[in-house]
Each structure stands twice: as C-alpha cells, then as structure tokens.
Amino acid sequence: MAKTELNRKIDTETEVEDSTNLNGTLASVMILGAILIITWVGLYMLFLSR
Amino acid sequence: MNIQAKLKVDPRDGKLAMAHFYVFIVALAIGGLAGLLQTFVRSGKFELPFGIGYYQLLTLHGVVLALVMTTFFIMGFLHAVVSKTAGTYTNRQRTLAWISFALLTIGTIMAAIMILLNEASVLYTFYAPLQAHAVFYIGLTLVVVGSWVGSAAVFMKYGEWRKANPGQSSPLLTFMAVITLMMWDIATIGVATTVLFQILPWSLGLVETINVGLSRTLFWYFGHPLVYFWLLPAYMVWYAIIPKIIGGKIFSDSLARLSFVLLLFFSIPVGLHHQLVEPGIDPAWKFIQVILTFLVVIPSLMTAFSLFATFESYGRSKGAKGLFGWFKKLPWGDARFTIPFIGMLGFIPGGAGGIVNASHQMNQLVHNTIWITGHFHMTVAFAVILTFYGVAYWLIPHLTGRILTKKMNKLAMIQGITWTIGMLFMSSSMHIQGLLGGPRRSAFSEYGGAAQAAEWIPYQIAQAVGGSILFISIILMVYVFINLAFFAPKGEQEFPVGEVAKGAEKTPLVFDNWKLWLGISAILIVFAYTLPLIDLIQNAPPGSKGFKLW
Amino acid sequence: MHMHKFEKIWLIFGFGALLVFLTVIGVSAFYLGNQPPSCLATIDPEKVDTTAPFNEPGLKKVEGKEWDYELVFVASAFSYSPARVEVPLGAKVKVIATSKDVMHGFQAAGTNVNMMLEPGYISEVVTTFKNPGEFLIVCNEYCGVGHHMMHSMIEVVE
Ligand SMILES: [Cu+2]
C-alpha cells in the first residue's frame, strides 16, 4: 500500500517520537491483550469439553 | 481548517442535524420501553396487555433501535461534523440532506405502521421465508435510499473542500465521515439487492418463491458492516474529539486514517461469520471470511493503543509520574469525557466476545444463544451508545446556542453511570445464560418443564433488573436532552475538534486517494463473495413460498 | 508515517495472538474434521415427509460408516419430530435435520450441537454424546408466534 512513498519524509521525527514515555500505554494494551487471550482460551476449553 | 475550527456550525446546518436528533431521542424512548417490557415478559412474571405480541414488540425494539435510532443519530452527527470541519453546506448540499432526512422519516413511519398493525412481526433481520407486508420492506428501502442521499451531500462537501484546498490533506473528521459513509453505501448494496430483486417481488405476489440462502447471504453482506456503521462514528469521537475534550492532542493523524482505511477494507467481506453454522456454504469459504474477520481486529488494536497513548501523553504533560499516574489526571468530572470513556472500556469485553463468535467452529458454542444478544448490547448498546450520549451532551447545546451547565453535567454523569450499571447487569447475565444454552429472541418459556430451562430463569430475572435500571437511564437522558435543546441557559458550547501536536509529521496525501481504497475494497469483496454466491444460485434448492406465522 | 516502537511491539503481539487462534481452529477444522455444520445437500422443502431419511424421523443404527447412529429430525412450526429420543451414552451420532417451512434453529443446550435449519437444505453434524442426562433441544432462530414453545429432548442413557 504505497508504503515506500509514505516512509520517506518521516525520518527526522522518529527519534523524538520514540522517546515519548508510553510505558503506561504498553502496560494497558498488554492487559487488554491478556483479557482477549484468557477469554478465547477459556471458551475454546469449554468448546473442547462439550 | 484553522479558521473553520473556530466557527460554530452554521445555524442552518445545525437545524438539519437537530432534526435528526429529535427522531433519535423519540426512537430511544420508544425502543427502550419495548426493551423494558421484553425483559419483564422474559422474567415470567408479567404478560403484555392489549393483545400486543412479544415478537411484535421485539420487532419494534430491533427496528427502532438498531436501524432507526442509530441511523438518525449517525447521519445527524456526520452532517454536523462535516459542516464544522469542511465548511458550511451549500444550499444544494443542504437540500440533499433534507431530502435524505425526509426519506428516512417517511420510511421509518411506513415500517413502524406495519409493525404496529402486526403485519410485520419478522424482527429487524426479516429472514425469508417469513413474509411481512410489502409496505414494511418499502419503508426499510426508503431508509436505505435516504441514507444514500445523505451520504451524497457529505461526498459533495468533501469534493468541494479538496478542490478549494489542493495539495492539502482533508480534515480528519471529514475524512472519517467519508470512510464511514463509503463503507455504508457499499454494504447497503447487499440488502438493497435482496429487498428489491427478491423480497419485494415475492411479497407483492409477482413471484411465488424465494431463494432463502441467497437472500440471507446478501443480508449478512450488509449485516456485519452495519455494526461497523455504528462503531465508526464512535471511533471518530474517540480518535478526534475526546483528545480535545481532555485538553490533549490527537496521538497520530496518519495512524487514525490508516485504521479507518483498514476498517473500510475488512468490515465488508466478512458477513459469512454470521452464517458459520448454516448449510449451503462451503466451510472453506467460511474460514476465508473468518481470516478476514480476524484482520478487522487489527485496526481496533491500533485504536486501543492510540487512545491510551493520548491519555498517557496528556497525563504526563500535566506532571503525572509512575506507570499509571496519568490515569488520575484525566478529567473524571466531565461527562463529555467520562461517559464515552466507560464506553471504550466496554468495547474490551465486547471485542473479546466478538473474536470468540467469529472463531469458525467455536461459533457452535454461542450461535443464536442469548450470549449473542449480550454481545451486541455490550458493543452497540454500551460502547457506542455511551459515546453517542457523550456527544449529545455538548453537540445539542452547541447547535441550539445553549450550554451544558454544571448541574446538567452532573445529571449526565448520573445518567451514563446508571446506563453502565444496568447494561452490566443485563449483558453479563445474557452472556452466562447463553453459554448454558439459553436461546435468543425467545419469549418466556419453561420448555415443557426441562431442568436446563429452569436454570435459565434466574438470569432472565437479572436481565429484567438490568432492563429496569436502563429504562431509568433513558428517562434521565430524555430529561437532559429536552433541557439542552430547549431550556438550558443561552451561551456558546464548544464543538471540540482535536488537533495534532505541534511539529507532528505531515499527513501523507495518499489517504485521500479514493481510487486506491475503493479498488482494494472491491477486490476483497469480489474475492470473498463471488464463489459462495454462485454456489448459492447454481445449487439452489426449490424456492420457498412466503409464511405468515404470527 | 511513523509508528512508536511500543505500538509495533503491541501490533506484532496482537497479530501473533490472532495467528495462533486461527491456526488452532484451522488445524482442528481442516485436519481433525471439526468443521462447523456446512452440509451442501438440498431437498424440496414441500416433500420432506416423503423424502428419505426424513420419512422416518428418529434414531437408527447404521453399519460401515464413521458413526454408529443416525438421528433424524424434522422441524416445522412449532415442533420437532421426534419430540423425545433416547441415545446410548458414548455413541457417535450423526444428527441430520431439515425444515419443512421457515428458518429454524437446532441447538442441544449444553453441547456443541448448534446449527441452522434452512428450508431446502439439509443440516448435518456429527457428535459424540459424552455425558449422560437430558439435553434440551431448542429452536434458537425466530420462526413465528410459537417459537419459544418449539423444543425436543435428547436423553443420553447408559
Ligand atoms: Cu422454530
């Protein structure tokens, strides 16, 4: 999807952005990911048990 | 755009949007009352008066809330947002939008009359070969056509903006409105096809039988994007309006656009995941659409990250420390933020359940059980509707030249939290009852005294408790709405439009390349649907006559 | 278009989880044969009563097949035939069903037997009844005013 064209102009900003402190965001989405996995695995087990 | 951002929505466009919102609030009240009575009936302790049928009421609930209330709110909201961010409508655009409103309203009234006359107790999915009165289908067709006319107004405004601002990236909210309506227009082709070419001729008696499998598949080609038509406006609010309300910045304009483009791609060629346990469709095609369904999860994962990042960045800019210190810095007293935020949280269990539903053979665990009802009440009636309430709190006073007072804000908080409690009660008991095998769309029944059915009844009573709390919330919402529309003090209520941080990278122009997006979307749809549809036509069984079993 | 490194980590993680889910259900479906009910056979909905095997609803022992029994159901507004049936514990059973009129559901509550019945199509699912007891069959697709009265019962006996 036209990625090459998009990637060209951004390099200058990269370092600034990666230094943004988003530790809490990463922790939050990982909790969300855990909820998704627990729900799915739990219901798959229920499916297998029936 | 910056000049536009300071302006109020033009009063003429404001009037247009408000017309939609009046229908929204009436639909909410009527549909909500129907829902309340349903939960009462299902508790086993109440019978409907005046010869009203349970399924007649259920049809009313589904049509009025899922089709009418949502469509009116969304069209009103999109007109307001586009007028605000791309500029006041021209007379021609506004005329189109009013024609759209008229068609939506006339269609709604036609369908509603047929439901009230008990000529259309077929539920809002109107699966053939149950056959309603032709006027019911014509009414629904007018609703769809009305939404097409309304989207034409938005597309015209967008085109006009592009012409006037060559080489610039379109306003984010307008871009999102265009994606939402493109997706909707492409999706509604499916339902329009089955209604115009199959169901209408058959209900008018012009043809005797109908291809049921084909009709269902065309319906679900529309039915899944329908739920994204509800969700995308909520995502618009979360991405581009909530940051302004809390005083922060949009995390990334480009990533927001990217996720909307992905939603356009993957919300349509996935309808078979509603038909996973039905005959006549090869399981390999079902699985291909299951894969595409899983891909539509990706933009939602991106959305979750962006939202948390917006909140964390804002909190840290206010001096928050530690891993979760930023959480406390958010404006918890502000209903415009807090109520949609609760909606966002509700989308987490909603999304988790959705992945389970779409997991191919695992669908047997939940298909058509009341788990499904619990699921879409969590996503639409909780995540999306709480967000719409959050919009109403500021958009209605903005459009009527009034303000949301501190006192009304407090009442709005109570209203949203009441909704939260009621829906948690109702939805969680539906989820559990569904896993125990309780069916959806069913009046109270003891199923011949079966022990399993007896286990379901306590959950149905919990649903009635939830339904009652929800209805209290609706009464509060009607009160807040009337106050904001007619009685709140005159003033200037802000229309919050999010901005990106200073020095943020420029949004690539490729996002306004519609040939590319529509082309990819078309390829995906053709790939996912051509062979299953040919199969359903070529290997069709003898058609079905119409039945009126209510 | 820049993406924060944490977002990349998150998306790779999420994508990986989805891929694992898809692999698990894909292998189970295509290699172990646990496909959702997707029978492609058709039938004239007006001639169900005279078409085999629906002319004789109920349980039948079969030989030389991957399953031991065939359990045939005919659905019509608002009942199933048979209204009650006994199945031996641990038997591998192919459930075969169809509708004589409108869409119906067919779910044995508490089991994975859950499929749509569509006029003109035959629905099939193979299952092993692992637990003894009564399993209520409910119609879980709206079919008319008596929809909630439509049920049957499978009794799994030793
Ligand atoms: Cu039925």
TrEMBL record, chain A:
Keyword Transmembrane set for record: yes
Membrane-spanning parts: 26-47
Keyword field: Membrane, Transmembrane, Transmembrane helix
Matching Pfam families: CoxIIa
InterPro entries: Cyt_c_oxidase_su2a
Protein name: Subunit I/II of b(O/a)3-type cytochrome C oxidase
Automatic annotation (TrEMBL), chain B:
SUPFAM superfamilies documented for this protein: Cytochrome c oxidase subunit I-like
GO biological process: aerobic respiration
Transmembrane spans: 21-40, 60-83, 95-116, 136-155, 175-199, 219-242, 254-272, 284-311, 337-356, 376-396, 417-436, 456-482, 516-534
GO molecular function: cytochrome-c oxidase activity; heme binding
A Pfam family assignment: COX1
Membrane topology: Multi-pass membrane protein
Keywords: Electron transport, Heme, Iron, Membrane, Metal-binding, Respiratory chain, Transmembrane, Transmembrane helix, Transport
CDD domains (UniProt xref): ba3-like_Oxidase_I (cd01660)
Keyword Transmembrane in annotation: yes
Taxonomy, superkingdom: Bacteria
Residues covered by the Cytochrome oxidase subunit I profile domain: 24-550
Subcellular location: Membrane
InterPro entries: Ba3-like_Oxidase_I, Cyt_c_oxase-like_su1_dom, Cyt_c_oxase-like_su1_sf, Cyt_C_Oxase_1, Cyt_c_Oxase_su1_BS
Cellular component GO terms held in the UniProt record: membrane
Family the entry assigns: Belongs to the heme-copper respiratory oxidase family.
The protein's name in its UniProt record: Cytochrome C
Automatic annotation (TrEMBL), chain C:
InterPro entries according to UniProt: Ba3_CcO_II_C, CcO_II-like_C, Copper_CuA, Cupredoxin, NosZ/Cyto_c_oxidase_sub2
Main location: other
Molecular functions (GO terms): copper ion binding; cytochrome-c oxidase activity
Subcellular location: Cell envelope
Entry's transmembrane regions: 9-32
Keywords: Copper, Membrane, Metal-binding, Transmembrane, Transmembrane helix
Reaction catalysis annotation: 4 Fe(II)-[cytochrome c] + O2 + 8 H(+)(in) = 4 Fe(III)-[cytochrome c] + 2 H2O + 4 H(+)(out)
Summary of the function given for this chain in its UniProt record: Subunits I and II form the functional core of the enzyme complex. Electrons originating in cytochrome c are transferred via heme a and Cu(A) to the binuclear center formed by heme a3 and Cu(B).
Name listed for the protein in its UniProt record: Cytochrome aa3 subunit 2
